[in-house]
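Newbie here. two chains, one complex. Structure please?
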Amino acid sequence: MIYSDKVMDHFSNPRNVGEIENPDGVGEVGNAKCGDIMKMYLRINNGVIEDVKFKTFGCGAAIATSSMATEMIKGKSIDDALKLTNSAVVEALEGLPPVKLHCSVLAEQAVKAALSDYYRKQGIDPIAIVGEIGECDHCDTEE
Amino acid sequence: MDRFVYADNAATTQVSPQVFDAMVPYLKDHFGNPSSIYKLGRDASKDIEAARVKVAAALNAEPREIFFTSCGSESDNWALKGAMQLMSKKGKKHLITTVIEHHAILHTAQALERQGYEVTYLPVNDMGLVSAEDVKKAIRPDTALVSVMYANNEIGTIQPVAEIGKICHDAGVLFHTDAVQAIGAVEIDVKAQNIDMLSLSAHKFHGPKGVGAFYCRKGLVLPNLIDGGGQERSKRAGTENTAYIIGLGTAIEIACANIAEKNARLIPMREKLIDTILTTIPRCRLNGDREKRLPGNVNISFEGVEGESLLLMLDMNGICASSGSACTSGSLDPSHVLLAIGLVHEVAHGSLRLSLSDVNTMEDVDYILEKLPPVIEKLRAMSPLWERINKG
């Protein structure tokens, strides 16, 4: 397994690790059986993501993609955060091994899940704005 | 990094200086083809035969029962495919093996199934032990071969090989054991233990990678593995890898010379690791049998932690280890061995294997014990799974 220097940097010094008390939005994706869980906390003010924290159970790539995703949305508008794609996270990390690409999908989904929760808390149906948050193929087969 | 500790000796070992020195002449001046008639060739041939004597001595076999191969997997393939092909001529097309074998056995058994052979995969108990009684019950009139690994590569469990050998012998069934992890750790006597075939690999006991051996009891004539010249009594043709065979001979001689003495040094190191980790780190468990265990094997699962990130963080601290997590297995599922002993996926993902060898010291053990707890703590602090476990 060869990780880029950028992945190793974010793995060894993950940014924005932790929790936010009474977050405006919180989302959790993945499951323990697959070996990856990402939980993302958002503090949102006037449509801007003022703060973001994450907790991840998972491999090096899972931790690095979570860390990178939080860096990419911190201080950005909700609209910009919604545009975050897994491939943008991969690019920012200077690539991921093919078997680890699902980790970047999980990072994108974690951001979307947290934003969905934010909208739900506002009494707004998130589906029209955020869309459905899919599961990875492997998780679909869970009991 | 304060120290470098290689604790992944079940993956591979460092070539010892004595082995290296023994090999070098054959890469330089003693380069002759062992099949050549002149002295340069004859000497190489003689030295290969001396290496064969050493391998035979380590197993209480006869030199003519030893064949050099390229690795343990090759020996395993030869044993299973060769024996099944041979016995199928007598109408025996049933193979018995276990669910915790190395992939060199499991995938070979699966390949045989695709060719129409029948395979029974015996379960293990929660310690990873195969029951000799289960072997006995699984034997049918059409059973050709039983293949049970001597010791497991992940959890270090040592199987009741002599007992299984006796059962097979009494039932007239061939018995093969993959002893790749066992050489130099346990006393092996193929005659007393009724072993018909055995696989081993040099790089697990401070020999070089790329060379193994296959013991096949005399009188058992398997089909040739490689047709070609007369090397390895025409059973496994191809010009001999002289330097590596010499390396294997030297390595096995050293590895099996003082097994009791080496274990007396290794076991206290293993026990200190296991005892200290289990008593100081909450929510972890030892995988595998505590007693019937390879002297250098430690396998512990930490709840709420994923194995790959654990290995990467240990690596940042200069510690090389291994894990049965899905991420390190290259598949979506964690180790088949850990699942076979009843671990749930999330606990199997958090497994750590530390495997010690002659080159490790008690200082290495203390260093691991100093570095491991904060690494586990750091990963747990950022793990939503750990948070959930703590909340109950």
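Moderator note: Chain A has one domain: 5-140. The helical segments of chain A are 5-12, 60-73, 78-82, 86-92, 101-121, 127-130, 137-140. Thread marked as resolved.
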